[in-house]
Amino acid sequence: MSRDTQIREQPKTHEVRIRVNGEERVTEVEARTSLLDWLREAIGLTGTKKGCNEGACGSCTVLVDGRRMNACMILVVQCEGSAVTTVEGLAGPDGELHPVQRAFSACDAYQCGYCTPGQLISAVACIEEGHTGSEEEVREWMSGNLCRCSAYPQITAAVMMAAEELGR
Amino acid sequence: MSSADARTAVGSARTRIEGPLKLTGAARYSMDNLPPGTLYAVLVGATVASGSVVTIDVAEAKAVAGVVSVLTGEDLPPLGPVLEFPGAPVKKPMEGDQIHFEGQAVAIVLAETLEAAEEARPLVSVAYAAEPVVLPGAGERQFLGAPDGDGTVWWPYGQPFARGDSAAALESAPVRFAASYVQPSRHHNPIETSGTLASWDGDRLTLWDSIQASMLLPPMFASVFGIDPADVHVIAPFTGGGFGCKGFWMHQLLAVAAAKAVGRPVKLHLRRGDQYNATGFQPLMTQRVELGADAEGHLQVYRHRVANITGMVETYLEAATEVKALYECPVIDTAQEIERVTVGMPSPMRCPNEGPGLWALESAINELAHEVGIDPLELRLRNYAEKDPLTGRPWSSKKLREAYAEGAELFGWHGRPRGGRRDGNWLIGTGMASAVGGTMRMPGTARVRLRSDGSVLIETDVQDIGTGLQTLLTQIAADEIGVPIDNIDVAWGDSALPTTGPIYGSSTMHTGSAVALACRELRRELAALSSLADPIEAVRAAGVEEVVGERTSQLPGGVEVDHDGGSTGFSMRTFGASFVEVAVDPMLGLVRLRRAVGSYSVGRIINPKTARSQMLGSFAWGWGKATMEASELDPTTARWLSKDLAGVHIPVNADIPGDITINFVDEYDHHASPIGAKGIGEFGSVGIDAAVAEAVFDAVGVRIRELPITPKRLLDALA
Ligand code: FES
Ligand code: FES
């Protein structure tokens, strides 16, 4: 059995311009680096969580140019020129909580809190998309975000409450 | 804000105090840490479930840029004894060449980046001598006897119990019913997979760990690495769901050993697929229940046999027969077996013991009611146990009758329409089941400081798995000390704080009780210093910086753990009932939850808001178990078929309707704890499966005795 044991080359890096929570960044990344790993391991924004790393749980949900996306399924190099919002970017500059955050608190829409950053971002998008016509509609459009603590009825109630406050 | 107002803190629907951290991304879970110099670790697991490792070639993996080391068993530091903990494995990892289950760790890749570690992992080349796997049904069966006889039963649960001659009683009973019930293996699937970050500084070890029981780690790593337990510092404030799978497991030991081997911090965040073989599962179980009754449905005999699968070397008993105290019955006969197959070690999972046990018992009770021709709730009332049917002891507190009545009222049980009524393509059915839970108590410890500025700090090493525990502690302290609740803060999640019990299902009992006792001590200290009634005025008048109380909530006899009342002279359990309405589409085999009521007699509720969330979450677990969850083994390789959240179905938001009512009977259990509370967290999930199966029967007239109730099973039964 002869195996080629030459040192595999260090992958090339690429310059990417990306705006995160309003802050412009220029970064050098390998083409294979996911947005999730970059947020968490490179720039220390650990609010966004890794639950599966394969697009199945939604705990890594962020907004990319206003659309909810699984950050584990996007490469940083695909985000050239994009604006990304993570859970750390939801509250106002003075720390005032976003209506969705307040509604989650009021409705106790979380337990361990691990899925919560993804749920919050997804909820912001769900409301923006106009999918809050009924509880049933919210349940359907929030079903990409798993919660094993199963705070689902409270999450649905919180999304409805925030949608109302936001006039949707 | 007078202190008198604050005395109503317990029982009020307080909002979680840790909420802002969780809602802004500031809560730090173990894998959110990154000390300088950290290496990323990825495990290489065995691809065969049985056999031995012949060779491991790490050269190609090591050649990947950024890879610092690839460790095999030989590269690990010498490991001292692994301590035996309840429900935790004991076989040292990466020692010897035998493989006992798929995914058993054989190597660890360490790299400067996660990407490099992931790239190198499949390049570790392992040659195996595979041996035949042992699948469920073909494994060696072992009858389990008294505890500790052979070291395999770690708790008194699941022991054989026999009173009277069950064979004769079954023979002579006017009404007999017998059936077998099956439930599949299922995994915990917390959204956070387990993770350990280990950092050595000489002989001092710092750990950031995803754990429900951080008190296990200092003694464990002191034993394994020959260091002082006081030199093991565990930081674990937030854990992303546990449900029983975040105690001690071998990946934690491997992360620590790897960090020691390379002299750098090591961060091991289990990949989702690896979690399926690393932290246990609820095992496949078959149960047979035989009931004998008189013509009015009074139980005369109850026989229950249980078998669960376990690993080839690691033993786990799922004590499903622990439901035997639910009904009054003169003749009781229960026994359990394990079956050894080539899988990893099973473990407790929300809800162990009674969860599986009630699937069988409560299904059988529903079927018996049908056979006798009386309402299932009425049958249960006819067999109501006024005292513990096993020991004859009085209950410490039991309000199951009230829980039935209030639940039935809220659901509209007595006026429910006949089963099988049509709503479009759907046929509607209703069902109910009882719930009973054991009470496992442990000591807890807490320190409480009242400072001269009026602030209070509670210090205790609990982990936050989402139960709302810290908030409950502030409520207890507010009432005990008599200070406004907003003055109270909690320091938690650090082993430098007072060590307390594990955070499995009853943490409010041990640590809440400890906080209450510490506050009472604090008040005594304070009374010695000042005669002023208001505690804040008193501490100021005393002219001291702070007054401190620290107490451990001891169990009677000073034992480390007691079960179902221990030596109190009382029998201590939790009780409840669930009522469900389902819709079944007989053409497609679909089952949907329409509405439900859970009604519980579980002692005093400290915080109805977080308690409701606990029970709603549990209810969803029950629905998942009833209708969708199953982890299947590949029938040729004994590998789990789906090791991801796409192939394994767990409830999503669309599965769980808003119309679930949670009701707590007003109750205070004076014997269970100094705060009147008992454990509730896992309890809401028990019995739901039996209620759902009954509701399906009510809707379409077929009994499903093997979970989950999938479209395929339903269509097969209806065909
Ligand atoms: S971590 Fe991205 S979807 Fe699960
Ligand atoms: S709050 Fe724990 S997974 Fe959703």
In short:
By secondary structure, chain A is α+β, with helices and mostly antiparallel strands. Chain A is built from five helices and five strands; from the N terminus they run ββαβββαααα.
Describe, in plain words, how this protein is organized in 3D.
The complex is a heterodimer of chains A (about 170) and B (about 725). Chain A has two domains: about 5-90, Beta-grasp domain (Ubiquitin-like (UB roll), Roll); about 100-165, DNA polymerase, domain 1 (Orthogonal Bundle), CATH 1.10.150.120. Helices cover about 30% and strands about 15% of the residues of chain A. Chain A has five helices and five strands, in the order E-E-H-E-E-E-H-H-H-H. Chain A has helices at about 35-40, 100-105, 115-130, 135-140, 150-165, and strands at about 15-20, 25-30, 60-65, 65-70, 80-85. Chain A has a five-stranded mixed sheet with strand order 2-1-5-3-4, covered by helices on one side. In chain A, helix 2 (about 100-105) crosses helix 5 and helix 3 (about 115-130) packs across helix 5. The longest helix of chain A is centred in the last third of the chain and has 14 residues, at about 115-130. Chain A is elongated. The mean pLDDT of chain A is about 95. Chain B is of the alpha+beta class. Chain B has 16 helices and 27 strands. In chain B, the strands form six sheets. In chain B, strands 3-5-1-13-10-11-12 form a seven-stranded mixed sheet, with helices on both faces. In chain B, a hairpin with a 2-residue loop joins strand 17 and strand 18. Chain B is globular and about 75 Å long. The chains are: A alpha+beta (about 170), B alpha+beta (about 725). The complex binds FE2/S2 (inorganic) cluster (2 copies). One FE2/S2 (inorganic) cluster sits at the interface of chains A and B.
